[in-house]
Structure formats: C-alpha cells, structure tokens
Amino acid sequence: MRAAIALPRRAVVLVCAALSAAAFVPSAGAAAPACRHLISDPRGDVDSLGSPPLVDDQSLVDLVYVDLKTDKRNVTASFAVVDIDPETTTSPLRHSFVVYFGSQGRRYALQASREVDGDIYTAWVVTAGQDYSDSPGGYAWAMSGLGAVTGSFDGARNVVRVVAPLELFAATGGLKGLLSEVHAMSWTGAGAAGAAAEGSDDMTDRVRGYRMGATSCAG
Ligand SMILES: [Ca+2]
Ligand SMILES: [Ca+2]
C-alpha cells in the first residue's frame, strides 16, 4: 500500500522538475513567442450565404487567429487564415477581413480586401450604429474612411495584415488605453461594393480588448 502511494508522488515530483526545466532553460534555436492570441477561432466554421451561395473555397476566409498590436506609430491588425487566395488579380471573388474595436467612445475598423483588381486596405470610423454584426437586419450602420493605410497578404504564412498610422485617428478622438470590444469577420463576395452577392463568412467571438502597447502575436 505504501509503495502504491509513494510511486505517484515520485512521478509528480519528476513531472514538476521536467516542467521547471522546460520553463527556465530555453532550447537552442527554438522560437518561443511570448504572446497569446487576442482572438482564436475554430477551423472549419465558415457559413455559406445566399441562395444558392457563391461557389467558393471556404478555407480562403476561415479565420484562425486575429490580433492587434500597437507601437508608437501604428496600429496593426493581423488575421491568420487557413489559406490565402494566391491569385490577386484573377480570382472572381473578393476576400475581405475586418476587425472592429472601440476607443474613446468611438468604434473603428481595420479592413483588408483581396479584390479582382488588387488588394485594398482601409481604416474606418463608424459614423452610425455600432458595427456590423450577424444579427438580423434593421440597424442603421455606416463607416467613413480615415485615410491611407498599408497591409499585406502573406501567402507563405497565411496571414493578412493591415497597418494604420495612429495619427489617422487623431481627428476622431485618437486611440488610447484599451482597444475595447474587439471582434472580427471575413467574407467572400462578388460584384460592386455595396451591391455585392456574398458567398460565405466567418465570425469570431467578441473579446474585452487589447491594451495598447502590450505584447502581441500580430505578425
Ligand atoms: Ca474559423
Ligand atoms: Ca468563427
């Protein structure tokens, strides 16, 4: 009986020792990012829209992680996707990614779209309503562009980025402290913006926020 009890205790001690070693002795050459993703989203949870929905590869808008990052000059949004459309100019469908957040009483959005004619990056301030959601229609909602931003579609890493200078937000109150109530979505579309048919979309959970300047996984 004593042996039966002693053995698990010894095992626990050994496990603790192993964990301590792993925590305090970095392995040579290992990249150990000390970040935690702001938003995690399941794979394979893209919804089909329209009747019939547009034919599309849903992995191209299947969100996995969404992160925000700020430094002294920029706010960056990073969307990790299951796959990225490599055909910038020949795909018949638009693939769009947007993240919403609040600051100083305003709501903002950072968006990237891989369009038929190229890639478009936008920073928005919400001017009516709150922000887009998957709730039924009937809400008044509008956004206004803040100015020129940059970004990238990284096909090697399957990451979409939007980089917006902080100065763009100054005229509407600026960004400060907690970028709050963060959530994101992605979708496919066809046709002119505003009159587009949609094929599929992916929504994320809404999280409390990102503290400006904090460690981030945004790449
Ligand atoms: Ca997803
Ligand atoms: Ca989702």
What does this 3D model show about the protein?
- By secondary structure, the chain is mainly beta.
- It has a single domain (37-211), classed as Immunoglobulin-like (Sandwich), CATH 2.60.40.
- The protein is built from one helix and 13 strands.
- The strands form two sheets. Strands 2, 5, 6, 7, 8, 11, 12 and 13 form an eight-stranded antiparallel β-sheet that branches. Strands 1-3-4-10-9 form a five-stranded antiparallel β-sheet, with no helix packed on it.
- A hairpin with a 2-residue loop joins strand 5 (94-103) and strand 6 (106-115).
- The longest helix is centred in the first third of the chain and has 23 residues, at 2-24.
- The radius of gyration is 21 Å and the shape is globular.
- The termini are far apart.
- Bound molecules: calcium ion (2 copies).
Defining key terms:
mainly beta, Immunoglobulin-like, five-stranded antiparallel β-sheet, 1 helix, 13 strands, 11% helix, binds calcium ion
Task: Give a short synopsis of this structure.
With 219 residues, the protein is mainly beta. Helix content is 11%, strand content 43%. It has a single domain, classed as Immunoglobulin-like, CATH 2.60.40.
